[in-house]
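Give me structure tokens for this 81-residue protein.
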Amino acid sequence: MISWLLSLPWVRRLGLWIGAVVAAVAAIAAIRRSGERAGRLEERLNQQKEIADAERRMLDASRDRPRDRDDLARRLRDGSF
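Here you go.
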């Protein structure tokens, strides 16, 4: 029965059109997924940059801190704290 339907030219043409539409929808879906993935990767990169910047600021602050009480008192007297 199926071979009889496939022998009709309009059924074959309809099948080709349906195949083309399915392929186009699949391609669009793949492009959309890759765009979403790229957006997530960009967001992750921005978060990592913010974290690295915060860590750098914390290290800079710890490097410039007074080492002991005498250093703290000297900085407070000089006004360079």
